[in-house]
Specification:
There is one protein chain. This protein is of the alpha/beta class. Strands 1, 2, 3, 4, 5 and 6 form a 6-stranded parallel sheet that branches. Helix 3 links the parallel strand 3 and strand 4. Helix 1 runs parallel beside helix 6. The termini are close together. The mean pLDDT is 93.
Length: 202
């Protein structure tokens, strides 16, 4: 039996109530429950206890972070969650310092993670079209990939010694949405990355 912790990091706005991100969280939750995984879900906008969230990270074999990309990063409520929960996870729960020692204060920064063996997956939604990425001719991202843009989130996870799983992204969700296609791609992504709960923690 494997443990899957899903975080819904959506920040509700009148023009963006979060139905798509909530639906993706629910699809993931249903998939893992059907596969026999133990699953926990936190909806950041509904409030949380930082200490319990640290425990959820320690409990999990896989952490899935679902959020819309707002202004090239995470929504501010999710950033607040990160600041509070990650800071609460010191003293060996999420990390043992930053990995440096007094004998070698300039080396090995970021190697103090306490979650080795835990995997993570980012699942994000964009107003940007897919074509805006991986193309040097595009004016904004100039060849950057989705994972390039999300590098701070990957570095946070690496700081805890978590292992990266393939990222999922839904594009153009406001101006030219393809929601049914997004759901189908997401389901396929889950089946591909997590073919069974017995393999989640491998």
């Amino acid at each position: 039996m494997s443990n899957v912790f899903i975080i819904n990091g959506h920040q509700p706005y009148p023009s963006s109530p979060g139905k798509l991100n909530a639906s993706l969280v629910e699809r993931a939750h249903r998939y893992f429950e059907t596969e026999g995984c133990d699953t926990r879900v936190t909806k950041v906008a509904q409030g949380y206890d930082p200490e319990r969230e640290v425990s959820n990270h320690q409990w999990a074999d896989v952490v899935i972070m679902q959020f819309p990309v707002n202004w090239m990063g995470v929504p501010w409520l999710f950033k607040k969650y990160i600041d509070q929960v990650y800071s609460a996870g010191s003293n060996g729960r999420l990390y043992n310092g930053d990995g440096r020692t007094t004998m070698s204060p300039k080396a090995n920064y970021g190697t103090g993670g306490a979650l080795a063996g835990t995997k993570y997956m980012l699942s994000v939604t964009f107003n940007a079209p897919r074509e805006a990425f991986n193309d040097p001719e595009q004016p904004l991202f100039q060849g950057l990939s989705v994972d390039d843009l999300l590098l701070p989130m990957h570095l946070n996870a690496r700081f805890f010694s978590m292992a990266k799983l393939p990222t999922f992204a839904a594009f153009d969700v406001k101006k030219d949405p393809e929601i049914d296609s997004d759901f189908a791609r997401f389901d396929t992504h889950l089946r591909t990355v997590f073919p069974s709960c017995s393999k989640v923690a491998m």
